[in-house]
Design goal:
The chain is of the alpha+beta class and about 70 residues long. It has one domain. Helices cover about 20% and strands about 10% of the residues. It has one helix at about 10-20; strands spanning about 30, 40, 55. It has a three-stranded antiparallel β-sheet with strand order 2-1-3, with helices on one face. A hairpin with a 6-residue loop joins strand 1 and strand 2 (about 40).
């Protein structure tokens, strides 16, 4: 999915939008980089055209994500 600041006015709204859009079974609480699992905490941490993993209550698990 593509994320835009126009979709959400703040970080919590963005996480809710992602939860709704991907029909996650629980609330998305964090976004992490797929290679290192580095936690993204705000818009300024997002890099244009990069991929991220949505994380719920648990911790990030590296399961060999494929990024395109």
């Amino acid at each position: 999915m593509t994320v835009s600041r126009q979709n959400a006015r703040n970080w919590d709204t963005l996480l809710q939008h992602i939860t709704d859009d991907i029909k996650f079974t629980e609330a998305v609480r964090d976004l992490c980089t797929p290679t290192c699992g580095t936690r993204v905490t705000c818009y300024d941490d997002l890099v244009d055209r990069e991929c991220y993993v949505a994380v719920g209550r648990g911790k990030f698990r590296d399961i060999g994500y494929v990024t395109a």
